[in-house]
Design a protein that fits this description.
With 351 residues, the chain is mainly α. It has one domain (2-276). Helices cover 67% and strands 2% of the residues. Strand 1 (145-147) and strand 2 (151-155) form a beta hairpin.
């Protein structure tokens, strides 16, 4: 438990103090965000705001996790190292996208297919490696069975596991990316989701099959996944200080893809894959708004359901203030996380 507190605290302070230093560096290099012309007009004042803040998020998370282990003298776990590799890999894809935007001075970096391909390759490698490295009990970082709040009886096999991992990572990372359209929105929602995984990791550690046979969980490294989740939550909290409205820095695709990958990685290694839907409820809702808008636009010959997608921009065009939207969407995120944790606990009680 001490490791969880240390990881979260160290990641928070590193993110909090390193972010303004990184902001000064980015301003000196004139590395600023380019704003889409077809977006809300109120966003044009944000043009030139430093971006690629995800670099600090990733660095603070990794350092928080490693320093926690250095202090507690607990060995690093294979599961956490694989999720960190997933976060870094997706962060690199996002960094390349952000870098092209900055260098070419445009709002679009990588083409959609190129970005999706990069994400899929990283996710596929994670899925393949996560079925290796069994512990003494035979548990691998990711199960070959489909999971809800624990493994079900549905066995996927290697190929389907890799495809499933790619699907989860693409959905989660792009969901966070779509949500990252207002100051602090994605960061605040991600904190709640990561804290939920801290609780799930601690609970599964206390109910693991090595110490109890009644309604136990076969999960490899649950406590260490809670440590990593705490580091991610702490890094996001420190970054949110500078990312809240009016934002002095954006996380960019570097941060949004990495955070989404972190959520998917935690869900897979903690055997709570389908539970990611309510735990990341806000990201799901915003992603669905884009799917609905795009599908209806094509089927209706140019008509729209929303004034603009993703959903947060629809409310901007309705005249809602940015801070109002963020706070209300945070409430939705919190209720979704609470529902997810309720389902998790309810399954344990019923079982």
């Amino acid at each position: 438990m001490r490791g969880i507190l240390i990881a979260g605290a160290v990641a928070f302070f590193l993110s909090f103090f390193l972010t303004p230093i990184f902001i000064k560096f980015l301003r000196k290099k004139s590395y600023g965000q380019q704003i889409r012309d077809d977006g809300p007009k109120t966003h044009h004042v944000k043009s030139g705001t430093p971006t690629m803040g995800g670099v600090v998020l990733i660095a603070a998370t990794i350092l928080g996790y490693l320093i926690s282990h250095l202090i507690t003298q607990v060995p690093l776990s294979t599961s956490a190292l694989l999720v960190i590799a997933l976060i870094v890999g997706l962060g690199l894809v996002g960094f390349l996208d952000d870098w092209l935007k900055v260098i070419k001075q445009r709002s679009l970096g990588l083409r959609a297919r190129e970005k999706l391909l990069g994400q899929a390759i990283v996710a596929g490698l994670f899925g393949y490696l996560a079925l290796r490295f069994p512990d003494d009990a035979g548990n691998t970082p990711m199960s070959s069975y489909l999971s809800t709040v624990r493994d079900t009886s549905i066995k996927l096999g290697l190929v389907l596991v890799i495809i499933w991992a790619i699907t989860l990572v693409l959905a989660s990372s792009n969901g966070v990316n779509l949500t990252d359209g207002l100051d602090g929105l994605a960061t605040g929602a991600a904190i709640m989701s990561f804290l939920a995984f801290v609780l799930i990791g601690v609970w599964k550690f206390g109910q693991r099959c090595e110490i109890t046979t009644i309604n136990c969980y076969d999960t490899r490294d649950p406590l260490d996944m809670a440590v990593l989740a705490a580091a991610l939550a702490g890094a996001c909290a420190g970054f949110l200080w500078w990312n809240a409205s009016p934002a002095r820095i954006f996380m960019g695709d570097t941060g949004s893809l990495a955070l989404g990958g972190g959520l998917a990685g935690l869900a897979m290694t903690l055997r709570t894959e389908l539970l990611l839907i309510p735990l990341g409820g806000l990201f799901v809702i915003i992603t669905l708004s884009v799917i609905i808008q795009t599908t209806y636009f094509k089927l209706s010959g140019g008509k729209r359901v929303f004034k603009m997608a993703p959903l947060q921009h629809h409310f901007e065009l309705l005249g809602w203030g940015e801070v109002t939207i963020v706070i209300r969407f945070w409430i939705i995120a919190g209720l979704s996380v609470a529902a997810g944790l309720g389902l998790f606990y309810a399954q344990w009680v019923v079982a």
